[in-house]
Amino acid sequence: MPADIQPQPTDGNANGNAAGNGRRPSRHFLDFEKPVAELEGKIEELRHLSKSGDLSIADEVTKLQAKVDRQLRQAYARLTPWQKVQVARHPERPHAIDYVSGLIEEFTPLAGDRAFAEDLAIVSGIGRFRGRSVMVLGHEKGATTEERVKRNFGMARPEGYRKARRLMQLAERFKLPLLTLVDTPGAYPGVEAEARGQAEAIARSIEACLDARVPVVSVVIGEGGSGGAIALAAGDRVLMLEHAIYSVISPEGCASILWRSADKAKEAAEALKLTAQDLLRLGVIDAIVEEPLGGAHRDKAAMVDAVGVAVDRALYDLVGVEGGMLRQRRRERFLAMGRKGMG
Q: For residue range 12-64, what is the model confidence (pLDDT) as tens digits?
């Protein structure tokens, strides 16, 4: 697989699996995870002691791990919208390149908008998903500090959305189903992006999504921020990870506009109805993909597998439907969305 889309190591030192169950302790704990952090710290201390002597720690580690699981289950069962925002932004969550690496075989990157430049905030290319040729597009934030800067924290510029539009049209020409992975705070708001036609590029990308005569399956894997997200998410099936968020504006941005203070971000998160559970009730998304205990960042492999199953199920329902019908249904779906929400 080309180096540009290889899964990147996250900042910090890697730890082993937790209790051999495929999950690993987090290196970045959120505020509501402090009790878990203390317990996992004790587990690491015991493991360190066991390496320096003949001390058997298996039973004690098993007990402590059971407490960790219980704490995680309790904490994640009652997350507030603001806490879900924090989880969706967790730096260790699997990114688009992790899903590409885990799900797409024979992946061949395709780059450039043929007009200005290559935008590394959007990864794209052709590959095989479970034996079926597909076109893949995804926002990529980057896992390390260097990667985040290189990929502009997942905030695409106009050339990124023009690249997306070009590849959507290429997918239609070769009758390839389109898989999009959404994870962006929003489109890049810089002056140079506006000067190069950011709004027009986003609108054209949405138009290409809606016009495509091939199946379009979109998955919100982290943040789904504003038009920068919907530019890749106007699909036949929109899936969303359990603790992802999807909104017209960030809670901080909303709070700054309505209350003139970003300190009201928690209240804004409540009002925006940005959680997967809210959006499923409103009919904005089609299904929720359950995350591993403690969030996607604790078991990336399991999360990637779960997304693969959900995408496969969605494609099974769409492949074989005539292209004109797909286009008509997709357009009707989004036109009806506002009416359903108002009702």
A: 433 334 444 555 655 678 878 777 777 777 777 776 666 655 556 777 777 87
What stretch of H or E contains 122?
A: strand 122-129
Determine the Cα–Cα distance for residues 59 and 196; give it in Å rounded to an integer: 61
Tokens of residue 129, six digits: 């998903």
Q: What is the pLDDT of residues 79-128, one digit of tens each?
A: 999 999 999 999 999 999 999 999 999 999 999 999 999 999 999 999 99
Averaged pLDDT of the chain = 87
Q: Where are the alpha helices (DSSP H) in the chain?
A: 34-51, 58-77, 81-88, 96-103, 145-150, 158-173, 191-195, 198-211, 226-233, 251-258, 265-272, 276-282, 300-318, 323-342
Distance (Å, whole) CA 206 – CA 328: 15
Place of tokens 């709070």: 255
**Nearest CA to 113 among 171, 159, 55?**
159
Tell me the pairing of strands 104-109 and 122-129: antiparallel
The distance of Cα 60 from the centroid of its chain, to the nearest Å, equals: 36
Euclidean distance between CA atoms 227 and 224, whole angstroms:
9
Query: Considering Cα of 12, then 17, then 23, then 29, what sign does the dihedral take?
Result: negative
The two most distant CA atoms of the chain are separated, in Å, by 69
Q: Apex CA 65: angle with CA 63 and CA 67, to 5°?
A: 75
Q: What are phi and psi of 101, to 5 degrees?
A: -65, -40
The CATH fold of domain 86-342: 2-enoyl-CoA Hydratase; Chain A, domain 1 (3.90.226)
Provide φ and ψ at 155, rounded to 5°: -95, 105
Collapsed DSSP state (helix, strand, coil) of residue 132: strand
pLDDT digits (tens, 9 = 90+) for 295-329: 999 899 999 999 999 999 999 999 989 999 999 99
